[in-house]
Amino acid sequence: MSTTVISESNNGILHPVTAQLVGAASSLGGPITVICPGGVGSSDAAKISGVTKVISVEGECFETYDCSAWSKSLSPLIEGDLILSSSSAIGRELISSISATKGIPVVQDVTSLKDGFSATRTIYSGKAIEEVSISSPCAISLRPNSFESAEGGGSAEISTVNVSQEVAVAVKRALAKASERLDVSEAEIIISGGRGMGEPANFSHLNEIADVLGAAVGASRAAVDTWEEIPHSMQVGQTGKTVTPNLYIAVGISGAIQHLAGMRSSKFILAINKDPEAPIFGVADYGIVSTWEDALPALKDQLAELLSN
Amino acid sequence: MGVAVLLKQVPDTTAKISISGGKVDESSIAKWAISPYDEYALESAIQLKESGFGDVVAITCGPSRAAKCLTEAAAVGADRLIHILTESTLDSIQVQSLLSASVKETGCDLVMCGKQAADTNSGSTGPGLASTLGFSFVGGVTRVSVNGGLASATRLGPSGLEEVEVGGPCVFTFDKGESELRRPNVRGIMMAKKKPIDSLSPEDLGVNGTNSLVIIKDHSSPPEKQPGQKFIGSESIPEVVEKLREEANVI
Ligand SMILES: Cc1cc2nc3c(=O)[nH]c(=O)nc-3n(C[C@H](O)[C@H](O)[C@H](O)COP(=O)(O)OP(=O)(O)OC[C@H]3O[C@@H](n4cnc5c(N)ncnc54)[C@H](O)[C@@H]3O)c2cc1C
Ligand SMILES: Nc1ncnc2c1ncn2[C@@H]1O[C@H](COP(=O)(O)O)[C@@H](O)[C@H]1O
């Protein structure tokens, strides 16, 4: 049994999900190779305990993102019974492309994994849970925050490989910078706003609470569709992202079935809505019947006070 | 030249998913629909055709009920309809082999599909298919236009929203697109009913459609939520915050 982990990076540094991938691989046993596209974070990857070796793959093709070029550069260096990546957008694309090149099956967004391989994932955007058995060798992407991180303190050997791969996808210009905020698909706490927020400027109240909690800010589809300022990347639900944070706070969201599909498996749900009959209260662990105008300032003050001491 | 659009039939997003005997009970699903992101892929393909690019070929792989999404595609302007008929559950390699064989047969050099299907929520097919076909790949796009031999697309990349350019054969996976989806008119619906569907079996395409390497062991419903606690008015906030820490242990 041996595993290759495709490391995840963000803004030029190793993303913490990489240690979770190593943690999942360690529980299965056998040597673990971490492969770092573009060499990003290779020295940090070497410090994750349990890693046998790190391959830092460098080359011009990593300056922008072209899935095919990256996949062609990485595939020949990947071996073993299991390939793991994060189920981030890029993680999914890369592992799909690599697995197709190798002719092995891929299973995405797995939340629990046992040897053999038996894996659990949600389907229909969280409306059902599926358990599959996958023949080896195979490729699996793991959902962030579903696996224990491996500790630090390792000192794996790093080898550097230089590749020159042609790039087919040219980036012409940037239209909007990526949000500095945490993405809902990797946050442990999410606070989401719906049409009940009245106007997009009022999302500033959600941002302030998110800053206090270290949370990501999400939105319902009605909010995304109504207001240009709220990007689709924030949308939670059947046609947005499926999330499983420890705490999901829904504010001014009615709780339509398509929204519930994407967030009902959250470990804990707090809903704030002025309508006592809103369906969101049907899935909420705690429901506060109040307008957000009354509730959010008080919530922010209480949280700030609690978390400051 | 031409655009192949891959359409998967999935339960309508309002459908309740019920489980019976450890399996999703498909017979209880009243309404099936084209997977939402695939609709944006279809819209974009039809716009390309209107701008002078070649025909739109709609392809679906699935059981006989899936033919309906081809007819729906024809009603808004798809020119050719291909149904890869299979009742089995397929792994990613099988889906990609079947779709790639049929794309090759059409001679299309652009392929458009959804970023993620609403049933599997995987996102494996587009990038995998691109590798299988040896095409370039651009994922998560909201807009594609073609000028001369060059396609230009807007995608959400690692550093934000960006415009990219790619030449030659390419697979695009769609996010929610920038365009409104068109609805069929009566004439379109009538014409679509008469449009022939090319029905192919996995064997016709030279692909082994059985022996999936991924076997579904069990389906289950997400755990039912216990009825929660309700609090009235913002006066309750101090109590709720304290409970979030002491009882729920989430902050
Ligand atoms: C194919 C399809 C896919 C879809 N996919 C998604 C998806 O991915 N995600 C998604 O979210 N939806 C999705 N939807 C849409 C979904 O059906 C609902 O329309 C949407 O979730 C409603 O958003 P909302 O709750 O913000 O708005 P509304 O339903 O308008 O609810 C607003 C809520 O705010 C409350 N409110 C109003 N004012 C205040 C106030 N001052 N303080 C507190 N509360 C207040 C109201 O009581 C109400 O409950 C989809 C629909 C379809 C057909
Ligand atoms: N059986 C299928 N028939 C047609 N298109 C498919 C099929 N499976 C996947 N696709 C396409 O690939 C996209 C991604 O699917 P998936 O990889 O299952 O998330 C879908 O949105 C469709 O556009």
Describe, in plain words, how this protein is organized in 3D.
- The complex is a heterodimer of chains A (309) and B (251).
- Chain A contains 8 helices and 17 strands.
- Chain A is an alpha/beta fold and 309 residues long.
- Chain A folds into 2 domains: 3-142, Rossmann fold (3-Layer(aba) Sandwich); 164-308, Rossmann fold (3-Layer(aba) Sandwich).
- Chain A has a 9-stranded mixed β-sheet, with helices on both faces. Chain A has a 5-stranded parallel β-sheet with strand order 14-13-15-16-17.
- The longest helix of chain A has 17 residues, at 292-308.
- The termini of chain A are far apart.
- In chain A, 58% of the residues are buried.
- The mean pLDDT of chain A is 96.
- Chain B has 251 residues and is an alpha/beta fold.
- Chain B has a single domain (2-214), classed as HUPs (Rossmann fold), CATH 3.40.50.
- Helices cover 27% and strands 32% of the residues of chain B.
- Chain B has helices at 36-50, 67-75, 92-106, 125-133, 186-194, 237-246, and strands at 3-6, 9-11, 19-20, 23-24, 32-34, 56-62, 80-85, 110-114, 136-147, 150-157, 160-167, 170-174, 197-200, 214-220, 229-232.
- In chain B, the strands form 3 sheets. A 9-stranded mixed β-sheet of chain B has the order 11-10-9-12-8-1-6-7-13, with helices on both faces. A two-stranded antiparallel ribbon of chain B has the order 2-5. In chain B, strands 3-4 form a two-stranded antiparallel ribbon.
- Chain B is globular.
- The model of chain B has no long low-confidence stretch (mean pLDDT 95).
- At the A-B interface, helix 3, helix 4, strand 7, strand 8 and strand 9 of A face helix 3, helix 4, strand 9, strand 10 and strand 11 of B.
- Bound molecules: flavin-adenine dinucleotide and adenosine monophosphate.
- Adenosine monophosphate binds at residues 6-8, 35, 37-38, 59-62, 95, 113-114, 116-117, 120, 122-126 of chain B.
